[in-house]
Q: What sequence folds into this?
């Protein structure tokens, strides 16, 4: 059953001075999902968030919230709440008063306010801090107060603007889990903005990759990671190895023979391709299969030499130069069969991959 | 080592001799006995402080408070929205307007006060306009009134109110206002709950910088107020330079210092309430 | 809404500038009384030049302003340095005292000066005036220079010490050149503060050394005095030039 659309942005264009920050931008978010907007600095993701919150007005296009046109609705009237990057806690009010603020604005009675505030504080595990002032809190605590202040109002949509970027690494990872659990518990739609792709992949139900004011791809983390639609997405998310290839002939519905690194290689592609088409064949580092050429195995892939290798605890990462001068990155996990394997610099190796794990896209003109 | 010692000693010496000791001397003088020849002699006497309660002086004291208070109020009413508007302008405009605001300030205030006579006098601008437009038949007496004194005080002191207010608005984090909007606060709610409390230290600082000096600006009272509208400064000047009753004059000054200390304490508290590392630590070195 | 804002701002500026504008205009007015324009004339400028007492007072004020500014800048810079760089007993007291001077109303300062000068037996005149002016300019110098010292890279100083430089060398060769914009701005600030002063000067000057506010005061109490208009115009030009210079200087060196 298809989830109802809670938030729709249609054809939004936004200009600052004479620069177009968003161009014909559209986005549809489903009710109750954890949606992330991911992109590099300056791609427009924060602008999208501010448009939804109501701090900016689009020059063209519309915004629909639960079917209602909120394009011209001022921020203070929208049933949307924001967790700011700098937390923006009111320094002259206690934690309790901060969290109660939205309820006070809505005219909620004293008893109900107290109940709901305490409930929200309990949810973020800050019940004992109600009387503290913001300057007495740590970064992580401030973040949770900001969360409580937003969720206590039971908004339809919660916006989070790079909320975790000010936290240190360990805390950040803890907060990711907490945030995800909170979202599941509340059932509110979360729209999360970040430039950290690991964060985006681990937390989202669906995510959008943005660049230069336009959506590059929308999909589940798995789709984005395994089937990037274009070069930007492929290179922005994780590491990627790229091979140029030309289609020679079509073998069947999904398989083609292509010329890759001077050899004929069977590749799989979901799209319709013609002989003569130029394509990018992409492989994630963990999809490559490396074999020492000193083994008595028959070489089946492309020959190369190990330029560098890095031990990361979980994997052994290798930088391998192929015969044509191109370098590829491989990540190999240690396993029971070969727990101590390693490469020496300049070792001759054979580079191949599991058939069908490659991702092929046509070269953009 | 020489250099270091020198600069430290210079600092302590100058400030000790020309700031600390004089202030202590004034407090001391206020409890001495007046003497026409030696200005102030022993024994210690509470006479001057007692005389502060005399009706005549109390009256001037209250009038000073009143005039300075109204001045401060008007400066606030005009200065607050003014600073609010200026603080939000883009950098270039802000710099230009603040500069323009400072320029009159750097002309001798006595001359500027004199210029007001040109405006408020019977043959001055306002009356010429009123007569010319036929609104009145005779010139309206504007000079030598309370109105003229307040007009003059506001004129000289308005920039002093604006500058700390602008600084206060500067410190106001824009994201706090956005957060308030996000949580449903309309304009007046944002003003009452966020802007006003957070700019309060600036308001108090500005008030401090206007209220106290206003009480001492005898030349404004002299030029624009005539004999009936006196400020505390006029009394102090009179006691020191004419009557030569130094203990009495000192007592008035100490009273003024006490008021100043009270207001500074208020400023300190206001900063603490909104939890900035503000107050003395801000300006102090 | 925007029109209202600009209207309000303009109104305030009209209020601030109108009296001054009147002074300037009337300095060229043939008529003695300001309410009628009778023609352009420079005769009041001539009259001012011929008014020895007034010119003397004007010169005296300029001399005091220059000397006080220079002395205050030197002393204040050393003070700022001492407070910033050195730990010494009563350091907090020193900055507290500077704060007191900065915040005290002029009238309070005026009598503290009067009292100490009489107590020390310093005759009221040039020297008392100078010392008083230096003192009330000091906090402004210290704050300005200190602010620039605050943005200082301490590593530079440590490097110099490492290379064997004495304190005075460090100050003259490294610190001073880098805080020069603040120093110059402080001079300009002190100059104008001194020139502007009315209250303190009224108390600590003596009959032998008349300065501008005293002279003008006696002139304007009696009645209209066109030479004062000329004086105002001249002062305005001087102040404008100085303030422009100071703002430009500070702005140029700010991103350090």
A:
């Amino acid at each position: 059953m298809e989830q109802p659309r809670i938030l729709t942005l249609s054809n939004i264009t936004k200009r600052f001075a004479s620069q177009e920050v968003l161009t014909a931008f559209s986005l549809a978010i489903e009710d109750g999902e954890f949606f992330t907007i991911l992109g590099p600095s300056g791609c427009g993701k924060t602008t999208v968030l501010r448009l939804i919150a109501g701090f900016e007005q689009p020059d063209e296009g519309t915004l629909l919230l639960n079917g209602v046109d909120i394009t011209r609705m001022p921020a203070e009237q929208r049933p949307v709440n924001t967790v700011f990057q700098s937390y923006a806690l009111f320094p002259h009010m206690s934690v309790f008063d901060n969290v109660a603020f939205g309820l006070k604005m809505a005219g909620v009675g004293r008893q109900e306010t107290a109940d709901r505030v305490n409930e929200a504080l309990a949810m973020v595990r800050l019940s004992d801090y109600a009387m503290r002032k913001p300057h007495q809190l740590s970064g992580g605590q401030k973040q949770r107060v900001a969360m409580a202040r937003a969720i206590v109002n039971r908004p339809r949509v919660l916006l989070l603007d790079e909320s975790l970027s000010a936290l240190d690494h360990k805390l950040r990872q803890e907060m990711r889990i907490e945030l995800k659990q909170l979202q599941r518990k509340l059932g509110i739609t979360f729209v999360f903005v970040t430039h950290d792709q690991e964060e985006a992949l681990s937390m989202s139900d669906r995510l959008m990759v943005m660049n230069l004011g336009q959506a590059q791809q929308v999909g589940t983390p798995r789709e984005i990671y395994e089937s990037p639609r274009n070069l930007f997405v492929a290179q922005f998310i994780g590491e990627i190895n790229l091979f140029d290839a030309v289609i020679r002939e079509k073998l069947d519905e999904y398989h083609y023979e292509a010329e890759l690194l001077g050899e004929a290689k069977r590749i799989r592609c979901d799209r319709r391709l013609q002989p003569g088409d130029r394509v990018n064949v992409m492989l994630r580092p963990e999809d490559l299969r490396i074999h020492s050429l000193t083994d008595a195995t028959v070489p089946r892939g492309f020959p190369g030499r190990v330029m560098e290798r890095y031990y990361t605890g979980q994997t052994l990462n290798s930088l391998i130069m192929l015969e044509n001068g191109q370098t590829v990155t491989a990540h190999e996990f240690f396993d029971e069969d070969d727990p101590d394997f390693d490469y020496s610099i300049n070792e001759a190796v054979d580079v191949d991959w599991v058939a069908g794990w490659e991702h092929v896209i046509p070269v953009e003109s | 080592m020489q250099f270091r010692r020198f600069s430290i000693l210079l600092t302590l010496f100058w400030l000790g001799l020309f700031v600390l000791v004089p202030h202590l001397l004034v407090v001391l003088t206020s409890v001495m006995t007046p003497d026409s020849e030696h200005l102030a002699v022993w024994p210690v006497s509470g006479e001057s402080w007692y005389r502060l309660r005399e009706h005549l002086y109390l009256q001037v004291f209250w009038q000073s408070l009143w005039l300075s208070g109204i001045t401060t109020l008007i400066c606030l009413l005009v200065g607050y929205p003014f600073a609010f508007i200026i603080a939000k302008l883009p950098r270039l405009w802000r710099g230009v307007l603040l500069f323009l605001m400072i320029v009159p300030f750097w002309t001798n205030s006595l001359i500027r006060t004199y210029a007001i006579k040109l405006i408020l006098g019977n043959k001055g601008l306002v009356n010429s306009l009123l007569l010319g437009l036929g609104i009145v038949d005779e010139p309206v007496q504007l000079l030598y009134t309370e109105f003229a004194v307040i007009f003059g005080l506001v004129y000289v002191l308005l920039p002093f109110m604006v500058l700390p207010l602008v600084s206060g608005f500067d410190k106001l984090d824009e994201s706090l206002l956005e957060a308030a909007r996000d949580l449903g606060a309309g304009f007046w709610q944002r003003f009452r709950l966020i802007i006003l409390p957070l700019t309060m230290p600036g308001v108090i600082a500005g008030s401090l910088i206007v209220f106290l000096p206003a009480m001492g600006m005898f030349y404004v009272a002299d030029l624009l107020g005539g004999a009936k509208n006196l400020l505390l400064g006029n009394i102090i000047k009179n006691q020191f330079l004419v009557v030569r009753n130094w203990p009495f004059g000192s007592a008035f000054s100490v009273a003024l210092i006490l008021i100043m200390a009270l207001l500074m304490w208020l400023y300190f508290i206001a900063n603490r309430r909104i939890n900035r590392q503000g107050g003395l630590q801000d300006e102090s070195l | 809404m925007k029109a209202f804002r600009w209207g309000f701002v303009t109104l305030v500026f009209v209020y601030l500038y109108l009296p001054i504008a009147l002074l300037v205009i009337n300095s060229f007015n043939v008529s003695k009384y300001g309410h009628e324009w009778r023609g352009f004339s420079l005769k009041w400028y001539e009259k001012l030049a011929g008014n020895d007492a007034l010119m003397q007072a004007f010169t005296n004020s300029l001399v005091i302003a220059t000397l006080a500014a220079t002395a205050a800048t030197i002393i204040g810079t050393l003070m700022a340095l001492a407070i910033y760089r050195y730990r010494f007993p009563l350091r907090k007291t020193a900055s507290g005292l500077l704060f007191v001077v900065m915040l005290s109303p002029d009238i309070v300062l005026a009598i503290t000066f009067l009292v100490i000068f009489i107590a020390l037996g310093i005759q009221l005149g040039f020297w008392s005036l100078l010392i008083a002016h230096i003192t009330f300019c000091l906090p402004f110098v210290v704050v300005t220079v200190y602010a620039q010292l605050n943005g200082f890279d301490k590593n530079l100083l440590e490097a110099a010490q490492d290379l064997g430089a004495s304190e005075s060398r460090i100050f003259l060769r490294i610190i001073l050149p880098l805080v020069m914009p603040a120093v110059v701005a402080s001079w300009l600030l002190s100059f104008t503060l001194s020139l502007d002063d009315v209250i303190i000067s009224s108390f600590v000057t003596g009959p032998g050394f008349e300065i501008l506010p005293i002279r003008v005061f006696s002139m304007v109490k009696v009645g209209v005095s066109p030479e004062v208009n000329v004086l105002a115009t001249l002062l305005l030009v001087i102040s404008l030039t100085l303030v422009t210079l100071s703002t430009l200087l500070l702005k140029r060196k700010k991103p350090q």
